[in-house]
Design goal:
The complex is a heterodimer of chains A (417) and B (188). With 417 residues, chain A is α+β, with helices and mostly antiparallel strands. Chain A has two domains: 99 residues, Immunoglobulin-like, CATH 2.60.40; 201 residues. Chain A has ten helices and twelve strands. In chain A, the strands form four sheets. Chain A has a four-stranded antiparallel beta sheet, with no helix packed on it. In chain A, strands 5-6-3-8 form a four-stranded antiparallel beta sheet, with no helix packed on it. In chain A, a hairpin with a 2-residue loop joins β11 and β12. Chain A is flat, with a radius of gyration of 34 Å. The termini of chain A are far apart. Chain B has 188 residues and is an alpha/beta fold. Chain B is built from five helices and five strands, in the order αβαββαβαβα. In chain B, strands 1-5-4-3-2 form a five-stranded mixed beta sheet. Classes of the chains: A alpha+beta (417), B alpha/beta (188). At the A-B interface, α2, β9 and α6 of A face α1, α3, β4 and α5 of B.
């Protein structure tokens, strides 16, 4: 059993590393100088080892500190300012009052043949509230097809072809030709339009803060909001009418109305109270008995609204008033306006020590409204389960807010409508 | 390794750790001022006795009887006087400023122009940062009250500096009923 000799048909294990090195050294006779030098180095190294370890450790700690960014972020949730990155959002696809779009194309083509689609539109300037020049038509390229050509003045960017109708050459039927890259394939395509250059400059997605983590619960709520609103085209038309009158993007009004009036077509944007009733927030002396569209009017000893659209215009003007009378240009402006619409600091979870605000990393807020459920609840993973501090304008113990915030609603409209 | 050398190594490593802790604490201190989203400006105007020329309450705006349609009586002299005074500041709107008050509270004052176009007899002033829903048993009540009064004084000073007689102006302190009610209560 002690026989260590190699056996036949067995692979010999390699010699231990140290033995091999020694053998290797033996093959190269060392000079006296080399030997002395090695001996000197060995002696120095062994005698100064503790000091070298200490100094090395010191520099290692310093280097690690600087490589870690030196922010102390691992020890403290310090409010390191981060340059916000705008999120890239899909173009919104709301119905546009007075504007209808038709897409036609062949039902089948032979493999390898080009496919030509025709997009035409109808614009009724009697009922439309958005100028034709503020509308852009879009077509998302499907998978397994490449862009071949398009009529008019179009742009093909990131898989989406667009035709701004402000260009007169696009104010006619448009054709788009695609080349299939796969045989026996079925394409599901659609053209859509959205308004541009209205309000803050078109795409509402550019006025939304970046999301901090995905939230499946938030996403479900956002889809539900978009689904509800999709069934209320008259409401969307009223929001768009208010946008045309005030310049405030209609999606902000939709977000406010979701929160204030649950998309009730008869509930005002100011308080959610039925249209035609006295609005307690509008003092009797701030309206007149003469009806003017977009303004409150005297109703039964107070002030109220005759139409839903009037309440939308009024809300838009007051939203703007809360941020200095301007149209929001950044997501901070939007969040700020929404927080003030609700009464800042009011429901700020950091301000009142609500449980959400005590979660590490949530406070201090990155911008005004960041810690307010009226603005941010279910916007992303960071903003789940925020707390309402005040209900009905009176103080109550904080309770979990089950509804999406206004910005969350706007995000849902932007993504899923 | 000698005992002495081990002690030296230990001391050097400890010094390194102390150095790092010192650096981190300094950086955290440096970052703390960015917790406020606005850059405050110090209060430069002296706090005035705002009781001298309190503005008119919006609740006291003369209104027509309901039988006559209700709403503001635009022919009333008080409303006309407010319109006249507000004409003087129209060109200076919108107005926006941030202040750190003597109470330590950071507030901002916003006076938009667009609302004045709709109701030219009422000036809507937003003083933001004050909690109008605080109750008198709240430890922060006095802080909010004092802050509002100081901020209102700044607004009245500014209006006066533009030549307006503040005692003849209807000012709406915010656009929510609870904001106005609390503001008026504090101004008493």
């Amino acid at each position: 059993m002690d026989d260590n000799r190699p056996q036949p048909n067995q692979q010999q294990a390699p010699a231990p590393r140290q033995n091999r090195r020694r053998n290797s050294q033996d093959n190269y006779p060392q000079t006296l100088v080399q030997k002395k030098l090695k001996s000197f180095i060995k002696k120095q190294v062994y005698s100064k080892a503790p000091l070298l370890i200490g100094v090395g450790g010191f520099f290692f700690i310093i280097i690690m500190f600087f490589f870690s960014g030196g922010s102390g972020s691992g020890l403290n949730h310090s409010p390191t300012p981060v340059e916000p990155t705008p999120i890239a959002g899909a173009p919104t696809r709301p119905p546009i009052q007075g504007f209808t779009l038709t897409l036609t194309g062949p039902t089948t083509v032979d493999n390898g043949q080009l496919i030509q689609y025709t997009i035409s539109y109808e614009y009724d300037d009697v009922v439309a509230v958005v100028p034709l020049e503020s509308i852009t038509i879009y077509f998302d390229l499907p998978q397994n097809a490449t862009y071949e050509s398009a009529s008019g003045a179009s742009t093909n960017s990131s898989g989406t072809v667009s035709w701004p109708l402000e260009n007169p050459t696009n104010q006619t039927s448009i054709t788009l030709t695609l080349r299939p890259t796969k045989d026996d394939i079925l394409f599901a395509v659609k053209a859509y339009a959205r308004t541009t250059a209205a309000g803050a400059g078109g795409d509402i997605a550019t006025l939304l803060p970046p999301q901090s983590g995905a939230s499946s619960r938030g996403d479900a709520k956002q889809q539900e909001i978009a689904s509800t609103l999709r069934g209320l085209p008259n409401l969307i038309a009223a929001y768009q009418e208010a946008e045309a009158a005030t310049g405030l993007p209609w999606q902000i009004l939709a977000g406010i109305h979701y929160r204030e009036g649950d998309f009730n077509p008869n509930g005002s944007l100011v308080s959610g109270r039925p249209i035609g009733n006295v609005e307690p927030d509008i003092p009797a002396g701030s309206c007149t008995s003469t009806y003017t569209p977009g303004k409150a009017v005297a109703i039964g000893g107070g002030c109220g609204f005759r139409t839903f659209a009037d309440s939308a215009v009024y809300a838009a003007e007051h939203f703007k008033g809360k941020i200095g009378g301007k149209i929001p240009q950044t997501y901070e402006d939007v969040a700020n306006g929404l927080a003030r619409y609700n009464g800042y600091p009011g429901n700020s979870n950091c301000h009142h020590g609500a449980p959400w605000g005590q979660t590490a990393g949530n406070c201090p807020p990155r911008f005004i409204g960041d810690d307010n459920p009226y603005v941010m609840n279910f916007y992303d993973a960071m903003h789940e389960d925020m707390y309402v501090i005040y209900a009905g304008d009176g103080y109550k113990d904080p309770y979990l807010d089950s509804r999406a915030g206004t910005l969350s609603a706007i995000l849902g409209i932007s993504k899923y409508l | 390794m000698g005992k002495k050398q081990l002690i030296i190594a230990f001391i050097v490593i400890c010094l390194g750790i102390i150095f790092v802790i010192f650096m981190i604490s300094n950086i955290v201190k440096t970052l703390s001022p960015v917790t406020q989203p606005n850059i405050p400006t110090p209060t430069l105007s002296p706090i005035r006795d705002i009781g001298e020329k309190l503005p008119e309450k919006v609740e006291s705006i003369p209104v027509k009887p309901v039988e006559e349609g209700g709403g503001a009586d635009l022919e009333d002299q008080a409303i006309q006087a407010s319109i006249t005074e507000l004409e003087k500041i129209k060109e200076h709107l919108p107005y926006f400023s941030s202040h750190t008050l003597s109470t330590g509270l950071l507030i901002d004052i916003s006076i938009p122009d667009n609302l004045l176009e709709n109701t030219p007899w009422i000036l809507t002033v937003y003083i933001t940062g004050v909690d109008y829903r605080t109750t008198d048993d709240d430890p922060q009540y006095q802080l909010n009250r004092d802050s509002f009064i100081e901020a209102a004084g700044l607004v009245l000073n500014w209006l006066e500096s533009k030549g307006a007689d503040t005692s003849r102006i209807y000012i709406s302190w915010g656009d929510r009923a609870y904001e106005r009610e609390m503001a008026e209560q504090w101004l008493q």
